Amino acid sequence: MALLTKPFSLLSLSLLFLLSLMVFCHPTTAADTTTTLIFKGCASQKFQDSSQVYSQNLKTLLSSLVSQSSQQTFATTTSGDGQNAIMGLYQCRGDLAVTECNTCVSKISDMVDKLCGKSVAARIQLSGCYLRYEIIGFKQVSETELIYKVCGSTQASGNGFENKRDMAFSVLTNGVKNSGSFYTGKYEEVYVLGQCEGDLASNDCGDCVKSAVERAKDDCGKSIAVQIYLHKCYISYSYYPNGVPSTSSSPLTAGGGTRQNTQKTVAIAVGGIAVLGFGVVLLMFVWSAVKKRGGKQYE
Q1: What is the pTM of this model?
Q2: Residue 232 main-chain phi, psi, to 5 deg
Q3: CB count, 10 Å around CB of 174?
Q4: Cα–Cα distance between 46 and 120 in angstroms, integer?
Q5: What would the pLDDT profile of 210-252 be if each residue is shown by its tens digit?
Q6: H-type helices in the chain, by residue range?
Q7: What domains does the chain contain, in order, with CATH numbers?
């Protein structure tokens, strides 16, 4: 893909992804665990669109992605021709049914204009899916570029946490690589989840997750709940030394019912918001495994 001729800083885009954020801090229920906004990243460069060509192409692109999300959990498409073309894709969390995926992607489509206006490139991440688009020729970022991070404010106490966490990371890295793109499971009290973008090759997926793991270790230390979002993959872990807490919300299950031998991972927002240095808003999420399949459990 050719680079855009107008100057646009890769660093400034990365900072936008980190600093241009919206986080909802109300209690999360089973009904909205897939559509809670985690972050948004909007390019500062805007469409020069007096003829409305870009606007129409973006509208067509979003409509196509929403339509495809009712049939599959990952898709990419292009709308328009030549220099007016816009490329876009969506990725739903690997444990979601297509009905849940469609609801999530539809939510983003409805939010794009309000959150990013006429930005020539954007990424919007909800708890169950993300969608991104960019004009053809937009400057690319590395597959392992850090987009957003969440380090829980609570730190693990006592001995043994780091060893358990590192063993869980090993389980996660192997699991994602072997499964193709999505894995969820646990090692003792550490629950892990990871996913790569749908078109990433298995080895590249493994490398991306390894990069996310190293970032989690370096940036978040002994935080008991962490999410790391890179350009092409993300990981999450939560540590429950006293067992997984019970919640009043019902677990999400594929198709809305209880399904045996299926592992579903539910995102539950807990606690408040902690603001750390450089304006990065850090929110602690927990991921709890509630069924028996979808990722091996290591006791």
Answers
A1: 0.73
A2: -115, 5
A3: 14
A4: 5
A5: 999 999 999 999 999 999 999 999 999 999 888 776 643 322 2
A6: 10-19, 53-68, 98-116, 161-179, 202-220
A7: 10-135 (3.30.430.20), 146-298 (3.30.430.20)
Q: H/E/C letters for each residue in 192-221?
A: EEEEECCCCCHHHHHHHHHHHHHHHHHHHC
Contact indicator for 281, 273 with CB cutoff of 8 Å = yes
Q: What are phi and psi of 11, to 5 degrees?
A: -65, -40
d(CA 201, CA 71): 22
C-alpha distances in angstroms, 235 versus 1, 57, 111, 225, 230?
A: 28, 32, 24, 11, 9
Q: What is the mean pLDDT of residues 91-98?
A: 94
Eight-state DSSP code of residue 255 = G
Return the structure tokens found at 75: 């898709």
Task: Say whether pLDDT at 108 is over 70.
Answer: yes
Reduce the DSSP state of residue 104 to 3 states and report it. helix
Rg of the chain in Å (alpha carbons): 19
Does the pLDDT of residue 105 top 90, yes or no? yes
The model's confidence at residue 27, banded by pLDDT at 50, 70 and 90, is very low
Residue at 237: amino acid letter: Y
The residue-averaged pLDDT of 133-157 equals: 89
Q: DSSP state, 119? A: B
How many residues are listed for the chain in this entry? 299
**Of 237, 22, 212, whose CA–CA distance to 126 is shortest?**
22
SS3 65: helix
- 16 pLDDT band, cuts 50/70/90, is very low
